[in-house]
Design a protein that fits this description.
alpha/beta; 5-stranded mixed β-sheet
């Protein structure tokens, strides 16, 4: 039974839907239950937007409409499971918005993330702070450097091959930096750019006891 005195947060790694491993959802559900989580935070890049990439796209991949439709369908699985969640905006999530800015399209013409992805009760944020922990996507570097630069506990994603928690202790402060794993399917065409690099670290994070206890949990493959 969950205690009313503690907040336990499940931190879900980059999904890059529709290119996420099918088993990753069940894995995250299992951690939510085991660690008696009360809150859910998606750490960013819930959608891949491969069709709209600034880099080369696959000539054999889906067109934009088909990819988006499939992503919405797969995100619905996550939404039905975790209807109340914070979602940190990642660089892939912002891609279409960036294209609109490049084309000088006024923001009034653009639908919100909630509308497009059909997730009305999710809250989309650039950054979220709770229990002296900041949750960011992490384009600016690693968690180990960010937590020391800000002198603040930091949880981030973005770097698919990294999953760790490091603690730094000084005379007057103590902070941790956590790199959350991800849920991507390394074998899909959208991940071909990383085909010859390191394999992704498939996992999630939990922040227990009102921000005091960070844990990385890796999925058995």
């Amino acid at each position: 039974m969950r205690s009313n005195n503690y907040r336990n947060v499940l931190v879900i790694g980059d999904l890059h839907e529709p290119f996420c491993l099918d088993a990753y959802l069940d894995f995250c559900i299992a951690q939510y239950i085991e660690y008696q989580c009360t809150d859910v935070i998606f750490i960013g890049d819930i959608i891949d937007n491969h069709f709209s990439s600034y880099h080369e796209t696959s000539a054999d991949g889906m067109g934009g409409a088909d990819e988006l439709d499939l992503a919405i369908l797969r995100i619905k699985r996550w939404y039905n499971t975790f209807p109340i969640a914070k979602v940190i905006l990642g660089n892939h999530d912002r891609m279409v918005m960036r294209k609109a800015q490049t084309s000088a399209i006024p923001s009034k013409w653009i639908k919100s993330y909630k509308e497009v992805l059909e997730v009305p009760t999710w809250e989309f944020l650039e950054r979220y702070e709770q229990d002296n922990v900041q949750y960011i996507h992490g384009e600016g570097g690693t968690a180990r450097t960010k937590c020391r630069a800000d002198m603040m506990n930091t949880v981030q994603g973005h770097l698919h091959t990294q999953a760790y928690t490091e603690h730094y202790v000084g005379k007057r402060f103590r902070v941790f930096g956590m790199q959350v794993g991800c849920g991507i399917n390394h074998d899909t065409y959208a991940m071909a750019y990383a085909k010859y690099g390191k394999k992704p670290a498939i996992g999630c994070g939990v922040i227990l006891n009102n921000g005091k206890t960070p844990l990385n949990i890796l999925m058995e493959l």
